[in-house]
Structure formats: structure tokens, C-alpha cells
Amino acid sequence: MAVDRSVESPVDRHRGDPYHGSMILIGTTNLTRTRERGNFYCPGCRVPQTFRLRARRPWLTLYFIPTVPIGGPELFVQCDQCKQTWDPTVMQMDQATHEMAAAEQFVDETIRSAVVVTLIDGSISEAEIAALLDLGSDRLGREFDREELGRLCSIAQQNGIKAANYVLTVSTRWDQGQRVEALQAMFLAASAEGELSDEKLKVLAEMREILNLSDNEYEAAIEATLR
């Protein structure tokens, strides 16, 4: 009698097994859903707008299908107009509160802008210190002392903050009047010693383009400051 000496191959053994050789695909994804709609004062648009209260939550996926939530929902408010997102506490603030907070932020940013301009040559003189302190109290309505000024100078120097880079970043929130006022503050601080160094002249000239001012607007702002 003939003997069958053939050996079953692994392929033959598992042929017909639908799970052999398959890969289980597991991953994560974030799902975002709208929970609520309404109206609020948008700090970005600076006018009342409609919003969506949204919830973002991570899910475990199996074969790309969300199956199990693996974290708590993260809530945020999104403006329907500018699409910027905010913490839900933004809905608790009215227009007057937002405007007050924005005005205080502008004053702080203007003071910092004036500080980094005076530090372009690597030091700050007594005349510049006096000009910055007067600038805060007399022009911007913000009292601060030498200790706070020293802290601002130290932070700027330790982090190598460049005047042009800083103003370019913060000025995106300023309106036209604030841009002119900030330029005048920087000029007052930079010219406290009576003569502008080449470095300060150069950075003040760069501010015209950074602040998106026309030649006439820039010159008028400087002339008004000199008067």
C-alpha cells in the first residue's frame, strides 16, 4: 500500500482561517461635537458674534472606528465669524469687561515695547529710566516703580527679546490709534537722552512698516510727539 508522505504547509494549514495573517488596527482620534449655540462678545472681532460651544474628546479606534472614549471632554468656545477659540469663561464677560481688559493689556504691551527699544544699545540710563516711569504715569495712566522696571529689563535681556520681533507679535491686536500711541511712547523713551543712536534710529524706522503706518501717519506721529 502506498504511503502519503506529503507534509501540510503552514499556508495550507491556515487556508480558510479568516484571522490568520490579519493585523488588528488600534489607534486614537479626537471627536469634536457642538453642544450649544448662542451669542457672545468676541475678543477677537471686538463686536458681538454668534458662537458654538464645542467639546473635543479623545477616543480609542478599532479599524479606524471610534469605539471607547479615553478621556474627559475639553470644552471651548468658537466664534462663528473669526473662528478663534476661547475658554468657556469668555461667555461670562460682557463687552465693557473685555474692553477694559484689552486696554490694560495694551498699556502693558506699550510699556514693554518702549523698554525693549531703550535696551537696543545694551544698557539703560537714568534719563531713560525717568522717561519710562513718566511715560507710564503721565501718558498711559499706569503707575509702576523702578523695581518693576528693573524686572522688565532683566526679562528682556535674559531672553534676548528683540524690539522689532516683540512689537510685530503684539501689535496684531492694536487698532490704528493704539499703533500711533505705541510708536510715540517708543520714540519718547528712545530719545530720552536727547540724541538717538544709530541702532535706535534704525529700529524706529522699522516700526513704520511693522505697525503698518503710511509715511504721512508715521511722520505726523513723530512730529506730534516732538511738540
UniProtKB/TrEMBL annotation:
InterPro entries referenced in this protein's UniProt entry, alphabetically: DjlA_N, TerB-like
UniProt xrefs under CDD domains: terB_like
Residue stretches making up the Co-chaperone DjlA N-terminal domain: 115-221
Protein name in the entry: Tellurite resistance protein TerB
Organism: Rubripirellula lacrimiformis
